[in-house]
């Protein structure tokens, strides 16, 4: 076709035609006896024979230790230790039904032989009031109070009253308006006594220094200095080259 004729045909590269890998070849095994590699030394080979029949030495063979031997059987016979079992409760017979101690109530029996008996009481229902009994209850009465001096038949203590304060003329009213102790100003002791030395506290003074900003230790990168120190090898990643490129051979003349 026209498309096939226009395509550029490149010559076949022999390097691209690679042979099969090691897994394509089947070498003879070096273990066993059958099919062993004849170029290698062969060790002796042994086989496992099947189990032989028991008829050659005993025709009637008894089974193995598959019988259950009771643990109470010894070589002298059965063990003589007494054994006990727990059975269910037997049903009570109707002919002999004897009551137990809890069936009796001796406290309900009448007194015998002039025995003393505590009194017993019963609680009956509340009785209804009769219409003819118009007697008031105890809480209907009100007793006179015992506080104050208004009780004629009871002794009373002295009674006092508290009156209000008077605006004028009373003892709490200061007509002269005399100032109190806090109304006077205190005199400085330095006026009439020897004056003590006085000190004042000023603010902190800053020392003169350079106000420009200095870089800290973290600003420097000493690991990048390679002028006077050994430098670690550095690698770069290039492009992938074809494995079929012919290397450059330069003929150096003597």
TrEMBL record:
It comes from Acanthochromis polyacanthus. Signal peptide: none annotated. PANTHER family: OUTER DENSE FIBER OF SPERM TAILS 3-LIKE 2-RELATED (PTHR21580:SF57), SHIPPO-1-RELATED (PTHR21580). One of its GO terms (cellular component) is cytoskeleton. Residues 1-27, 203-223 are annotated as: Disordered. Residues 1-19 have a biased composition (Basic and acidic residues). InterPro entries: CIMAP, SHIPPO-rpt. This is CIMAP1 family member D. It comes from the Eukaryota.
């Amino acid at each position: 076709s026209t498309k096939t004729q226009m395509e550029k045909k490149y010559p076949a590269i022999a390097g691209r035609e690679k042979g099969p890998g090691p897994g394509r070849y089947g070498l003879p095994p070096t273990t066993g006896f059958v099919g062993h590699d004849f170029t290698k030394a062969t060790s002796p080979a042994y086989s496992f024979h099947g189990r032989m029949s028991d008829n050659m030495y005993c025709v009637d063979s008894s089974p193995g230790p598959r019988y259950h031997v009771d643990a109470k059987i010894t070589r002298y016979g059965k063990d003589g230790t007494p054994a006990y079992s727990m059975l269910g409760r037997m049903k009570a017979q109707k002919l002999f039904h004897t009551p137990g101690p809890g069936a009796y109530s001796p406290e309900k029996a009448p007194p015998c032989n002039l025995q003393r008996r505590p009194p017993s009481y019963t609680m009956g229902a509340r009785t209804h009031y009769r219409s003819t009994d118009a007697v008031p209850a105890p809480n209907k009465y009100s007793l006179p109070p015992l506080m104050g001096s208004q009780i004629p038949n009871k002794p009373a203590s002295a009674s006092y009253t508290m009156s209000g304060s008077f605006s004028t003329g009373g003892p709490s009213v200061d007509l002269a308006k005399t100032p109190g102790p806090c109304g006077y100003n205190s005199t400085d002791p330095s006026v009439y006594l020897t004056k003590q030395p006085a000190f004042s506290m000023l603010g902190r003074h800053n020392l003169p220094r350079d106000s420009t900003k200095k870089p800290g230790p973290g600003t420097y990168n000493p690991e990048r200095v390679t002028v006077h120190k050994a430098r670690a090898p550095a690698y770069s990643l290039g492009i992938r080259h074809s494995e079929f490129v012919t290397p450059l051979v330069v003929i150096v003349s003597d």
